[in-house]
Amino acid sequence: MGPTVAILLSIGLGLNWVMRAQMATLPRPTLWALPSPVVPKGADVTLRCQGHLGSDRFQLWKDGELREERHASWQLAEFVLRKVDDVRDARSYSCCSGQGPWWSELSEPLVLVVTDLFPKPTVWVHPGLVVAPGANLTLWCSRPKLSAIEEVTFSLWKAGTQEPLQQKRSAEPWTSFLLPSVRPESAGSYSCTYRDERASATRSESSDALELVVTGSLPKPSLSALPGLIVEPGTHVTLQCRQPLQSSLWRVTFILLKVGTPQPLQIQSPAGTSADFPLLSVRAQDTGNYSCVYYGRMAPNQVSEPSEILEIWVTDVLPKPSLSAWPRLEIASGANMMLLCWGPLWATRFVLWKEGDETILQTVDTTQDGAQFSLSYVIPEHSGSYRCSYQLDTNGSVWTQHSEPLELIVRVSEPRYTLIVTLSCVAFLCLLLCLLLLEFFCHGSIPVGPHL
User: Region 400-426: what's the mean pLDDT?
Assistant: First the structure.
């Protein structure tokens, strides 16, 4: 063998080794299904194969047999299965990618599941799940967008009934069900489904259930907060809901509510007559108005009225009160007026200050969400700048910042004797005029010159 032949043989063996090495090192592609590997019967599903860098050919294998091959760019290929069938398409799939003469190993297998049930809808309620009798409720049912179906029939169900409460046909992915003027017997568990009009047997799973509570048939509980109504961020707060003494129910379930939140925050069924709801490491968004209700577990349709609203503040700075005057800021001396100080619901006492005076002018306990300070028979010395503040019920030594200043002006009234003198002069002139007129009528006209 000559030197040239030996060199060519060596090069050939080297290229063969490189080819074999590249074939052994091509990474496996990844195969996944859109929208999901679990799809309803009759829907379309896309199998997406992601290959290695430089891949330009792809193969889809079904149960170990080659099903389809195609060229693609950007290292990605899509294989669409239309109107899948549980017998034909519910199989194990894999794919491989190629570059030039080389192919990768097959991807991990993907098992496609075809079901007679469509994915379950999402259901929600407006304005909320806890309502008073007579309220109007709207239950919304929403389905996922599926290319296999167009118009569907939505059904609203209530637990314990054999037939749907309401049904609606819609080509939109959602619909609404109105419950007008709800009553205590309207309370219960609600869910919704939908079905394809073209195949009545193809329906969805039931949505998650919503528990509707209608209040008002039992006396309201009380709600309190520990350590207080105003706390710093990060504090642990406990809201205690207590059954009223006149209620004789036992085995009671308590529900904690927050104004503006349609879902109950917490639900507890303690052994006693009260429930403790923990709010851990509260933040600014936990600020709000809270209440609670209860119902007997043996009679869930009997639900109490909501407790009084409890306003919780999570803040490092307390809000300022506001100060206004009635009937107006500028007033005549000798008149009566009121200064009105407004603050949050949890304020228990208000005080009135006047700038330049170190002492408190008046202290008034709160009425609803404010206090009234009466100023009787005001004089010019009452003119000046006024402010107010309020006290908390959690700590008697803590006061808020003062309100913005309010400038009061008391005008000086004219003395009474000036008015009396003025009136007397007017009366004298009137009397003099009357006497002159009387003289004229009694004695006739007065000659003013000689007769011609």
Answer: 74
